[in-house]
Specification:
alpha+beta; 2 domains; single chain
């Protein structure tokens, strides 16, 4: 990250966002060997301070990790520096806040997927038995799963999270199949689907402010969707007592398999209780992939 080019360091500014107070100049990579981009406007958030800086020709130049890579002359730049006088700093979140948001977001996403799987199972059962499923219920499930996929994809694709681990549901294979079939042909549209979850992430100190800012809206959405998914599962169970009974029977018939898988797959506490309205049972989640991102430091 070219830190050797900076002869000074301040831990107090590390991780702070910087927002322009005038039309700023951005220097790519590091002083003395860089391209220059001139931006037009105030209140532009460029990126986040690494803590490294230097003084050149009387100007305080602070190193920045860009929020989004700058592409200049066909080259993508991840690091740069800025004139401190052109910016103000903004602390958008402490380390604990970012970690709490991600932990709660992941937990909400897990429960939403569990509810979505159960809803898809009940819808499949009702359709097979000639029962009508309201379009409104279909639309809610489609939106819940689509947005869940988007939130998971955003986590996986974020360059500011150093490692991610995904998992897929176990013990209830038919529900995963039901959900995938529903998403591929929901009766309201068509979309591909992969049933998985992001179950663990690692946040670096430098990226905590960014993580807080980027994923707070996703966390807020997950809280709202958690209630929607619970309400939908209850509504479908009420709509078809037979489908509810079938779901309970499935849970009771596979509880041991799901429990054993969840306990032995190395994923830690990857066993989630189902909603009480469906009876006692568990869904297991088994780790399927590890995503490790090692940034290019030079």
């Amino acid at each position: 990250m070219y830190e050797e080019k900076y002869d000074k360091y301040s831990a107090t500014v590390k991780g702070l966002a910087i927002i322009s107070i005038m039309s700023p100049t951005v220097y790519m990579n590091y002083p003395g060997f860089s391209s220059v981009v001139f931006l037009d406007g105030k209140n532009l958030r460029i990126g986040f301070l690494t803590g490294y800086y230097t003084i050149k020709d009387g100007v305080n130049l602070f190193q920045v990790e860009f929020e989004n890579d700058f592409t200049f002359d066909g080259v993508a730049y991840h690091w740069g520096c800025v004139d401190a006088s052109q910016y103000r700093t903004y602390d958008v979140g402490k380390d604990s806040s970012a970690k709490n948001i991600m932990a709660n977001l992941i937990a909400n996403n897990k429960t939403i997927l569990e509810n979505n799987l159960l809803c898809a199972g009940m819808i499949s059962y009702m359709e097979a038995n000639g029962e009508t499923v309201p379009v409104a219920h279909r639309s809610v499930l489609y939106n819940l799963q689509s947005r869940l996929e988007a939130r998971n994809g955003k986590i996986l694709n974020s360059p500011f999270i150093d490692s991610k681990q995904t998992a897929s549901p176990t013990g209830f294979d038919q529900y995963a199949s039901n959900l995938q079939s529903f998403m591929n042909n929901p009766g309201i549209g068509i979309a591909p689907v992969v049933i998985y979850l992001v179950v663990t992430v690692v946040i670096t100190l430098l990226s905590t402010a960014l993580i807080y800012l980027m994923f707070k809206p996703d966390y807020s959405e997950s809280k709202s969707h958690l209630k929607q998914s619970s309400d939908l599962t209850k509504a479908l169970a009420t709509l078809s007592p037979e489908a509810r009974a079938r779901a309970i029977a499935d849970l009771e018939g596979q509880i041991d398999k799901a429990y054993i898988t969840g306990k032995t797959d190395g994923s830690g506490g990857g066993i989630l209780k189902t909603g009480m309205y469906l009876g006692a049972g568990f869904l297991g989640f088994t780790v399927i992939d590890k995503f490790l991102q090692n940034r290019d430091k030079k």
